[in-house]
Amino acid sequence: MSSTLLSTQGLVARYGDFQALYGIDFEISEGEVVALIGANGAGKSTLLKSIMGLLRVAPEMVRLDGRPVGGSKPNRMVSDGVAIVPEGRRLFTGMSVVDNLRVAIDHAAVPRGTAWTLDRVFELFPILREKQAVPVQSLSGGQQQMVAIGRALLNQPRLLLCDEISLGLAPKVVKEIYRAIPSISANGTAIILVEQDVGLARSASNRLYCMLEGRVSLTGRSQDISREVIGAAYFGGAHAVA
Ligand SMILES: Nc1ncnc2c1ncn2[C@@H]1O[C@H](COP(=O)(O)OP(=O)(O)OP(=O)(O)O)[C@@H](O)[C@H]1O
């Protein structure tokens, strides 16, 4: 695997007086797929928000290409090549599929490597080409998720943050969406996948981190970690490091 793209060191995050993260050490390399698993409230979304600049953290707690970027504004992170598919998608209702996608093109980072285009997004999710003129709110949940992923890709990210992209979708649709993950990483884009479905997280990723109550309870290569070890790290009990 190539060099470290993004890392966090001793990352601490708070919502007012409430401390949600306690010293998270995390890293992801170029083109790598890393899954982030853990029970509700473990701190997965908070870690993504801290990386994306949606929560204030100290500069040296997040590094991109070794440069301190913690606490940068989200639009600065986008222009530095980090994009997020937020939980709940946050699409622009009342606008067509293609207009939702075009919004991202206007705010894209300077393309590095192979740039994402509308055509390439339509190749990844062919149904979106057919539905491009349709108001986004009339799409199914799975199709809306495809738009959200496509929009983030059109930001030309080197790192894509995905927050529970399978949430509330039928298994068949989830499979369709997850089929896109290898194509995205093959393009050189690293991906952090926050995922509730542990089996899915494990099979889609190179490495995983399990979080428990604001801390990393387990990390290792996804294929090397047994379900039992993951179970212990997920629910607490023995502190596990594979
Ligand atoms: N806006 C907020 N204000 C206060 N506390 C928050 C806020 N958002 C999250 N928290 C708290 O921070 C902790 C971590 O939440 P976070 O959403 O990061 O967990 P998560 O692992 O992503 O879980 P989920 O799968 O439920 O989204 C939880 O205790 C949660 O209640």
UniProtKB/TrEMBL annotation:
Gene Ontology terms for molecular function: ATP binding; ATP hydrolysis activity; branched-chain amino acid transmembrane transporter activity
Domain ABC transporter: 6-238
GO biological process terms on file: L-amino acid transport
Protein keywords: Amino-acid transport, ATP-binding, Nucleotide-binding, Transport
Pfam families on file: ABC_tran
InterPro entries assigned to the protein according to its UniProt record, in alphabetical order: AAA+_ATPase (IPR003593), ABC_transporter-like_ATP-bd (IPR003439), ABC_transporter-like_CS (IPR017871), BCAA_Transport_ATP-bd_LivF (IPR052156), P-loop_NTPase (IPR027417)
SUPFAM superfamilies: P-loop containing nucleoside triphosphate hydrolases
Similarity comment: Belongs to the ABC transporter superfamily.
Protein name in the entry: ABC transporter ATP-binding protein
Organism in which the protein naturally occurs: Mesorhizobium zhangyense
